[in-house]
Amino acid sequence: MKTAKIIIDKYFLIGKADDRIFGSFIEHLGRAVYGGIYQEESPLADEKGFRKDVLALVRELKVPVIRYPGGNFVSGFRWEDSVGPKEQRPVRPDLAWQVIETNQFGLNEFAEWSKLAGSDIMMAVNLGTRGPEDAKNLLEYCNFKKGTYYSDLRRRHGYEAPHDIKLWCLGNEMDGPWQIGQKTAVEYGKRAAETSRMMKLLDPGIETVACGSSGLMMPTFGEWEYTVLNECYDEVDYLSLHQYYGNRDNDTKDYLAGNAGMEDFITSVIAICDAVKGKKHSKKQIDLSFDEWNIWYHSEEQDKKLEKWVQMPHQLEDVYNFEDALLAGSMLITLLRHADRVKIACLAQLVNVIAPIMTSDTGAWKQTIYYPYLHAGLYGRGTVLHTLVSSPLYESKTYGETAYLDSVCIWKEDTEELTIFAVNKNLEEDMEVTCDLRQFNGYQIVEHLVLFHEDLKAVNTQADPDRVSPERAGISKVENGIFYTVFIKHSWNVVRLKNLKDQP
Ligand code: AHR
Hints:
By secondary structure, the chain is α/β, with parallel strands linked by helices. The chain folds into 2 domains: about 1-10 and about 385-500, Sandwich (Immunoglobulin-like); about 20-380, Alpha-Beta Barrel (TIM Barrel). Helices cover about 25% and strands about 25% of the residues. Helix 5 links the parallel strand 8 (about 165-170) and strand 9 (about 205-210). The longest helix has 21 residues, at about 260-280. The two termini are about 35 Å apart.
């Protein structure tokens, strides 16, 4: 058996994790909205057409914030089409995904649904085919109280109270050649600055996110970030990052090392943000919004065969297997380890489209990646401790030397709880792990959840929804202030401890 050590110190803090790093994303794409969160004719829906089974699974996740309505979709979106009496809403071709958009679910329905889900909205504006004026109008419709054209239009549509949306994305992936209205970095940076300025003149309480590169692999990565920020540094609050992984070569060891790429991406973007800060002699810090992260590759082949210009196709419907859950867990660990600079992150997406929740006309179920996302959202809120991991290494084809053990510890000082998240990436051997917890006097194990399956390719389906699901099976103990555990081979672990000293 391999051995490893986790080293923490209660005075050595990364910082409090912003709750918004457990966010997600709903785009008008495939069956995310229609047939996902909304299905008017379904017996599983409420009187508004919201799928009750889906809402129950979303509520369980306690998603703090959901990005909407895209994604690529937003770059051709006319928000006015999606509000007002449903029978008057136009049916439009959506050029981003080459499907038909009926607009039967829109902005106000999403605001209502989000309230029921217990989530805030992160709204994206269209900077592909539109610009600052339309973004300002949309903000006026959403956030202005009353007495102006767009705020009164909202009230006439039946929404007296403003939606009060605090977080706004300035377009989506504007560097991508696939994006409707792709821009150069200078063009986009100027447009982002103008848009953010106008929006903040109307509502100074909002925060805005400028588009970073669509991924670390973009040839313009780095240059794009620097140039965009150079144009809009003073006007925006966050810079976005997007990244997806896939086990295309069926090399699981390499695949599971993928969060090392995410790590490089984050540290590089922080460096660029701070370089622009230095160049501008600015006191302001730009933080990161990792507003699209996930695994996306299983559906690539089937999506090539999709018919165009239909409604709600089965698009981007990745069926996630057990090894995907391990990488999702490691990506969450990486996000938490950067909680001092990553303030927002969105698992892309939430329902049916590269999502933790899948639906059919007769039910909804949890995909494998649901579990690490659930656990991080429930037990990862608190102060992130600098977590040193002394672990044996392996050689990954793409990322070089990689630690078998990924881990991060979260401390909730007020309730005296400590959570250890860990992934053992070793495909053959269990790992014996210790951690000196003498500073956490009285802390004992509350539970040790383990997500494990012998078959790395095991999936959950509607017929067999619990094939990959967590068990309270972990072997952990605290003796004389030392924590001992075994993280079994290829497993996701959540160890929860609490100060039980004064408990009866
Ligand atoms: O999440 C799916 C798509 O991935 C989004 O629409 C786009 O922003 C990204 O390329």
